[in-house]
Design brief:
There is one protein chain. By secondary structure, this protein is of the alpha/beta class. It has one domain: NAD(P)-binding Rossmann-like Domain (Rossmann fold, 3-Layer(aba) Sandwich). It has a five-stranded parallel sheet with strand order 2-1-3-4-5, with helices on both faces. Strands 6-8 form a two-stranded parallel ribbon. A two-stranded antiparallel ribbon has the order 7-9. The longest helix is centred in the middle third of the chain and has 16 residues.
Length: about 190
């Protein structure tokens, strides 16, 4: 599968590239909120992986603005599959929320409220689209080795601390259409 990787130069994007064995990843270069730039990368793409997150100096709506652009351009090019990474601050009915999840998300909302609100908004935008989306929700990313003691679960509870390598493996698993139109979390097996 030929996949456009949005956020290729970030910490999670780098782990996706390091772990990848089965797909042809195309690094997106530029601002994914800019439609003209996005269009240059979409020919011959089968799916999109979006791992853009908030970093110091990023727009308060970087995810939702970029997702809006991606949706319109993907539809123009007939690309139907997108997998996006976001945080567990995106709550859905039936979620099993642990105490540490509540505490860490409370802290993030205090320090960087735009991170949570933008994750919620970008997820709403995707879930209201006609695309075959999957939104992987994780709590706290670390730089450790991948562990295989996880599974994808619609309502959690989430693993509190998970390595970017494990998240990369989960993102590749999310490309499977059985996760289409879902927002799973990584939970313990």
């Amino acid at each position: 599968m030929r996949i456009l990787l949005i956020g290729a130069n970030g910490r999670t994007g780098m782990r996706l590239k390091a772990i990848n064995k089965d797909h042809q990843l195309v690094d997106f270069i530029g601002d994914f909120r800019d439609g003209d730039t996005v269009e240059k990368f979409l020919p011959n793409i089968d799916a999109v992986l979006c791992v853009v997150g908030h970093v110091k100096g990023s727009s308060k709506n970087v995810q939702s603005e970029g997702i809006n652009t991606l949706i319109s351009k993907m539809q123009k090019f007939g690309i139907g599959r997108i997998v996006m990474l976001t945080g567990t601050g995106v709550r859905l009915p039936g979620d099993k929320i642990t105490l540490i999840d509540r505490v860490l998300n409370f802290g993030v909302k205090l320090v960087d409220p735009n991170r949570v609100s933008d994750g919620i908004e970008s997820t709403k935008i995707l879930t209201n689209s006609k695309l075959e989306y999957t939104v992987l929700r994780v709590l706290k990313l670390t730089n450790g080795k991948p562990k295989l003691n996880w599974k994808l679960s619609e309502n959690g509870p989430t693993i509190s601390f998970v390595s970017r390598d494990s998240v990369a493996l989960a993102l590749f698993e999310c490309l499977d259409k059985r996760y289409s139109r879902q927002c799973p979390m990584m939970t313990r097996k």
